[in-house]
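Protocol step 4 of 5: obtain the predicted structure for the target chain.
Materials: sequence only (see below). No template structures provided, no constraints applied. The aim of this step is simply to have a reference model before the mutagenesis design in step 5. Sequence pasted as it appears in the construct record:
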Amino acid sequence: MDDIVIFGRNKKELHKNFERIKEYLASLDLEVKSNYQVFRFDYIDKNGKRRGRPIDFMGFKFYRDKTTIRAKIFLRAIRKARKMKQKKIVTWYDACQILSYMGWFKTTDTYKAFKKYIEPNVNIKLCRKRISNHFKKRKE
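Step 4 output (structure tokens):
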């Protein structure tokens, strides 16, 4: 296992559970990496101010009320879309990449950003068709 996220009511409860997990892993001759973190999850206080931290996990940033994409992934998607706009012919590789990025946008609360930065630069239907044609040729 690579990553694990555990939620609890308070840090004391989390630290107790963490010690139990370490003991169990020790019985299996495994250990936890030293860079683990226990922190307060994102929330909005009574004054409307955002407190705590979001969970940055698998390319996403999870907040209590929304899910976004990591900034680096977002910037790479925008750059890729701009480069594709300048090209005369879309390669199947470029089409695969942009559709992969599209998956990130579909599963998060960043649809407006997709409409603003990606969609004007890339023809999604053309990308899908390019990939379909590429794999049809490979089957023959």
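Step 4 remarks: Strands lie at 43-44, 50-51, 55-57, 60-62, 67-69. Residues 7 and 14 are 7 Å apart (CA to CA).
Proceed to step 5.
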